[in-house]
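Reading a protein record of the kind used here takes only a little practice. Think of the row as the fold of the chain written in a discrete alphabet. With that in mind, consider the following protein and its fold in token form:
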Amino acid sequence: MRTPVSVITGFLGSGKTTLLNALLRHPEMRDTAVLVNEFGEIGIDHLLVEELLDEKTVLLSAGCLCCTIRDDLVGSLVSLHERRAAGEIPPFRQAVIETTGLADPAPILHTLLGHEALEDRFRVDAIVTAVDAVNASFQLDRYPESLRQAAVADRLVLTKTDLAPESLADALRARLRRINRGAPLIEARHGEVAPSRLFGTGHPAGENGGRGIERWLNEPAYRDAEGHANHDVNRHDDRIRAWCLEAERPLPMARFIAWVERLIERHGDALLRLKGVLDVEGSEVPVVVHGVQHVFHPLSRLDRWPSGGRRSRIVVIVNDLDREQVVEGLDDLLC
């Protein structure tokens, strides 16, 4: 069983560290490994460190392992996995990574999706992005990292709403829904939000079947997105586009792979995220695909189809691409 890994990201000052501190106090976060860049970035003294396990790993009173990742993310995760197997550290059932404020989440997702040392041990669960209600409008305009952090999220957490004028917060909520139609918008006061609302988002690989596909894809949010475009959207936001592509007929696997390879070759940097469940020729069960820019996780199969019928559904989130550029090579098979 692969261990789910979630990523908490957000621009400088977005409140992601406050969010993480609050999460670590929840009993639900027991048996969680947390990876941060520096212990000093979280309120470690207030989390009651019980035991120093080694020079970069501590055990918190909540039962969480907290580790620094100043060196190498792959090395840290592999070390945790091996030490857990050897009984050298307490067991953990999930891992959470906190990024730096200026981080584009794509390289981290590249690592989690594509590194051979991780693919049999860990899987991506949720991308959680903290968004500052006071400053996000300016940051989204000026910093592409902020826009990408919001666009690829599975969950958007709006922070500091108690400090922002209601009109500003309302405008930001509407803007975030345009940028990322598929991510639920969750508000956190002083970082307080139930972990169950952020993690275990229903990635089908964690469900041993199809019942998590609807939550993972959230396809209704993307359907007809272009047809409902708001002509008053910010010019930066308008560059982020997303669709749910559907096919009623089984897809030839070779043709689908050729389509993905063409997308990567021509538009890899603009392909922010692609995730889907496929009905492919010759397979009686659904095939799951998940990729970020140039990197795709190996295809996996589920045990059964979800409710709603047997069909392919692919969510594509891109930066500054038209639908015609995305579907080229697969267009005659799509609904």
In short: The chain has two domains: 3-197, 214-333.
